[in-house]
Design a protein that fits this description.
The chain is α+β, with helices and mostly antiparallel strands. It is built from two helices and seven strands, in the order αβαββββββ. 13% of the residues are buried. 27% of the residues lie in helices and 35% in strands. A five-stranded mixed beta barrel has the order 2-4-5-7-6. It has two domains: 31 residues; 87 residues, OB fold (Dihydrolipoamide Acetyltransferase, E2P), CATH 2.40.50.140.
Amino acid sequence: MAGKKMKVIVLLAIPVLILGFLAFQGFKNSAAYYYSVAEVSAMELTQNKLRIKGELVKDSVDYDAQIPLLKFSLVEEGHLLPVIYNGVMPDNFTHADEIIVEGKLEASGQFQVSKLMLQCPSKYEGEE
């Protein structure tokens, strides 16, 4: 009887442990620290994926719809980061308060984006 209980416990524990491990791995891969443009400017070249938050330099936007290729710069506290994104420019791109980019820093100093996210002003905020 004790042997049957042990088998049931082991058989139930295995899927729970597997699901727990997969959940942990998913959380670990999705959690990312936001670096500032100033922090990235001071960094040495890294192969790790970075997530950077900064303000868009409005006159730096260069978009070629044929490729599609979007080039722009992010700025913070006088530090400038040139960014390249291979993809379609979002409709509200120029209206964004802050841009969040995820990708890798190249040896040339440009940031190659794999994921582009926008923080737009909320239409629900009150006027000051």
